[in-house]
Amino acid sequence: MTNPRQGLPDGVDLSVPSAARLYDYLLGGAHNFAVDREFGDKLVASHPYARPMAILNRLFLREAVRLMVHSGIRQFLDLGSGIPTRGNVHEVAHEIAPDVKVVYVDYEAVAVAHTRMLLGDNDNATMVHADAADVDRVLDSPECARLLDFSRPVGLLVVTLFHYIGPDKQPQQVMARYRDALAPGSHLAMTHLALDAATEDLVEMMRSTQDNIFPRSQDEIRDLFGDFLLRDPGLQPISAWLRARDVDAEDNPEAGRLLAGVARKA
After folding, report:
1. CATH code assigned at 65
2. Fewer beta carbons within 10 angstroms: which end of the chain, N or C?
3. Which range of residues forms the domain containing residue 23?
4. What is the per-residue pLDDT for 175?
5. pLDDT tens digit string along 168-204?
6. Closest among 9, 15, 50, 1 to 205, alpha carbons compared
């Protein structure tokens, strides 16, 4: 019988699902384990919009990156980047501008290991193993120092990240510190789970995983953008945002619990 731990980095807990591996499973990826698949199947049975939401979220990431590159952004900081799958940030960006620099950040060991394997000797992309809520560790990392110039505009990606950052970590202050580090002309792309009766049930389900979730009101999510100027179509349910950008996307009102927006620092 194959040893499921063979080739795994140290510290990976196979007894509890992780959000990164669950997302990979919902997207049809291969870097997940039985515990993640079992939980994913229960999640989809209770919340059928979970898989369409994951697919729409990936479409948003790609469209946001394209929008930023076409707006002149040539460097990205991708917080909570997750396990690599088709259409990663550097791949999408390099289709338009091969000189784009990308720094990925995640604390999940499988995500870090597979990203580093994917990148190999890529001089224009790298991986930071850190909790994105630890702002100093991220911004002061050798990887950021090598690839990113914070005196110039940066594309900051916080896609399905901040609803995993609980009140104890002061998410508004964390987001403010990242915004303050960015030069004028920088862009911020975000998706965040909105609070309603259905997501309250989702909160309870996620308590059995490594990653609790904290859905927020639309006003609370809007506040995470600070004084950045939201680009059209503003902060919208993710399927509505994509359709407004002429992206062919499933109209799934339930998946619209995930709000999406891209904003620019004046």
Report:
1. 3.40.50.150
2. N
3. 19-264
4. 98
5. 999 999 999 999 999 999 999 999 999 987 787 888 9
6. 50
